[in-house]
Amino acid sequence: MAFADMEGGARPAVELRAHRFGSEALQPALRRDPGAGTADGVVARPRLERQLIAAANNNLITTLVGPEGTGKTTALAAVERECRRLRQPAVVIACAGPDGEAAHFAASVRRAVELATGQDARCPDSMLAALLNRAAAANAPVTFIVDDFDLADHKPQRALIVDLLHGGRGEIRVVVASRFKLRCGLGSPMLDSKLADFGMEALAFTAEEAVQLFPGPLSADEEQGLARLLERTGGWPLALQMAVRRHRAGESLAAIAADLSGASPAFEALFDRCLEELPPAPRAAATILGPIGTAPAELIAELLDSGPIDTFEALTDTCPFVAFAGGNSEDLRLHPLFRDYLLARLRREQPQRCQHLLERAAIWFERRGDGIAAARCWLRAGQADRAARWLERAGNRPQGPQPIPLRGEELPAAVTLTPESAFRVGRGRAFQGDRADTAHLLEHSPSLATMNGDDKARMQLLRLLVAFGYDDFDLVRAEAGRWLTDYRSARTMDRVIAALALALACNALLDPVKANVALDQARGDAARSDSAYLHTWIAIIAGLLALDGGNPAQALAEMERALAHTGCQGAIRRTCELVRAECLYETGQTQAAAQVLERNLVEGLRHGVTETAMAGLETAIRLRELEAGAVAALTLSREAEHTIERRFGNRARSHLRLARIETVLRQPDDRRAVQFDGELTELDILADGDARHSPSTLERLRLAVARRHIAEGDSRAGLALLGPILAQSLASRRLRVWARASVLKAAAQVDEGDAGAALKTVWAAIERTAPRGLYRSFLDDAALLRPLAPLLLDHVRRLGGGGDPGCLAVAEAIAKACAVPDQPPASAAAVADMPIEALTSGEIKVLSLAASGLKNAEIAERMLVAVPTVKWHLHNIFGKLGVRTRTAAIAKARETGVLS
Q1: What does the alpha-carbon distance between residue 796 and residue 839 come to, in Å, rounded to a whole number?
Q2: Pfam families, per this entry (predicted)?
Q3: Is the dihedral angle over the CA atoms 500, 505, 510, 513 positive or is it negative?
Q4: How far is CA 520 from CA 485, 629, 832, in A?
Q5: Among the four residues 147, 801, 830, 879, which has the most C-beta atoms within 10 Å?
């Protein structure tokens, strides 16, 4: 199951470190291409390096195409380093201006290939022979690395490379960096089929890479500013370097992001040169695209009054700042900074034409019903009234509000200061997770004291949505109830939104009683509306509350009723499917859950709240672990982290990290210590006393810490943390948390040597929740119950089939997962007559220390071994003595004379 970043492609998180690379051949070029550098060196980019090295190994030619400052030279150096590490031959050429002449380029190649002085490098035969000799000597292909090939991209030079690739028959690979795509694509069908392209988006910095450019950890506001900065720069390293310098001078990232513009002198010379290098037809298309930013090719062709498709392909080939949007060959998209530049230039040089283009584009979008795009064009044309009408239409759709992707700074005062329009735009930004921009919009809106009626009600509701977005659940709980009382005649949709925000806030505050009261309020208000959108949201919240209440069967029924409604379509359907997937998984229908997520995960994460997003994503992570192992699950989690944080904020990121930590803690002791120990540092960071968490996040964090204590043999510390969680969750009937905490308590009780109490603990949880469909919450932690599994199976057999089928199914599944033999236990007399295998001296030492009352951690400290070693000795002792508990082992050892 693949996870793609919703902003346009998978962007996995990576571990970064600063370093200097030592390629003598490429060091001079670094000064021309500083895109990946910092003041102290170069930021390593393992994600990009891995992708580039794999492409170079699997293709005859690999191209890196981007403007200045995209880190192309640094990426080439990674390929060269990999060749050196593998002892594979590599030839490196850094082109300069004179290499535009064929003879000069040939001389550079001759020196790089180390041909004899008298041999003519323009004749490929001698060069080919030299390269093939190197390949034969190393028994590996030769990698031919060419930096800044745009300075030498002419017919003779291209012909030379093509001849080498054809003659090399796979023994010669070429990796080329250039400011624009290689002209004519090297003109070879054979090469085109074995060509890998890395464009500006592939070379862009991810958030995980960009954060390394700034000293020390960033605050929540600075992280939000960085996200906005990445959006403004498209992750272009050169632009980020400019931001780094301003940040070091004392500016905040949010201020830099708001102020950064491609129309500034810092970019103007570079963009001027880029525009001048374009052929006439692509230049005209770019100029028209400038005011609009992203537009279908059909619109651009109409505005050009001509413009065949090859014009647009030529534009994307010759200008790295233009791309086909999202892989859609019909829509062209400008880099945001290049768009600023083109718009400012057109307004300065041809203001009337700029106005005319924007108005024609707005009318074109209106005809096709795209209100958001039309409003954006009207805003840029200065016609705020027409923009406001289209924004209101987008916000009042009967099937639910359309998110309005406009930022506060994009709106002129005439729109920003209209309460109705401010509410429409602010709600759209809040639903898209942009809490900072919504807050900014509120700050620049009229005072509530000057409003009355619907305007005041809606602006107060917008403030509640911002508070909810910032996880200020106490404020939402206090103010949302008051809002619902004060504005009984408010619009139905607004009242339902307020009630559902209150329900989610109360649930995050571990108050399910008030959450259900708020949900009933939403149901009552929604009864006046036939909106499938509202009724589906109510079903989703009801399902989430039922899941927390340990009743996934009821939650699944809620989801399926909502999905059966014909009006449940679009984004809200995808959101509902994420919660349904978690219900299916919890009830043990893992294959069905995987199929639902395969169809809905990526789209579902574009909409909703933290709870719905994590329902789908955490289920996907657990399924990936079952299917492909812990490493694959952790990879999926890291790939999603940046998107989840940007869309849903810090609370969602914390839950995603806790899901990752729980994955690690489920691994066997020896594997966790060797392979995943570093992952647990995230738990220490989250548990830092200065960190601020909602009560629900804090409860889950404490469960993770208790799990870690138990895994490391400190069962007493684990039990101390579990006590309050068990009491509070049972009192509030949050039975899923109570069941999961009960499993941990049972594992700790086994470590304490009280298997009888552990069996009672886990069976009480199974008996109360398994009949309601809770299944995976037990089975996912089956490894913790391994010592109890035989006793659990015995207990089920003694019931003689008289127990609830759900309880029996859970117990049998745990026994099967723990490989308990499916046969009745031997009689007591038979067990007594079985010969006892001799214990080793180490096992006798462990058993004697256990008999003196020491716990696993204390035994490990006394023997100077690890806790897992003690557990392994006890496992062997139980097997040899034919017992299942520590108490029974001590008694049997004394009975047989092993212990005195």
Answers
A1: 32
A2: AAA_22, GerE
A3: negative
A4: 14, 42, 62
A5: 147
Among candidates 433, 425, 415, which has minimal Cα distance to 608?
A: 433
- Contact by Cβ (8 Å): 241, 37: yes
Cα distance between residue 330 and residue 309, in whole Å: 9
Per-residue exposure over 662-684, b if at least 16 CB sit within 10 Å of its own CB, e if not: bbbbbbebeebbeebeebbebbe
Q: In this predicted structure, what is the pLDDT of residue 30?
A: 28
- For residue 672, give both structure tokens: 């966790």
Question: In terms of domains, do 192 and 85 share one?
Answer: yes
Domain check: are 737 and 855 in the same one?
Answer: no
Which helix (H) or strand (E) covers residue 456, if one does? helix 453-469
* Chain segment 308-337, per-residue pLDDT in tens: 556 677 788 788 888 877 544 567 888 889
pLDDT bucket at 827, cuts 50 / 70 / 90: very low
Considering the domain architecture, whether residues 803 and 778 belong to the same structural domain is answered as: yes
Q: Which domain holds residue 850?
A: 836-895
Where residue 682 falls (left for φ over 0; alpha for ψ -120 to 50; beta otherwise) is alpha
Find out whether 889 and 847 touch, Cβ atoms under 8 Å. Answer: yes
Residue linked to tokens 């639903």: 431
Least confident of 338-347, 433-442, 822-831: 822-831
pLDDT in tens, 785-806: 888 888 888 888 777 666 788 8
User: Looking at the domain assignment, is residue 68 inside a domain?
Assistant: yes
Strand order in the sheet with 18-19: 18-19, 41-43, 37-38
Burial of 337 (0-12, 13-18, 19+ CB in 10 A): buried
Q: What region, left, alpha or beta, does residue 119 occupy, with left being phi > 0 and alpha being psi -120 to 50 degrees? A: beta
Same domain, 24 and 126: yes
Q: Is residue 612 part of a domain?
A: no
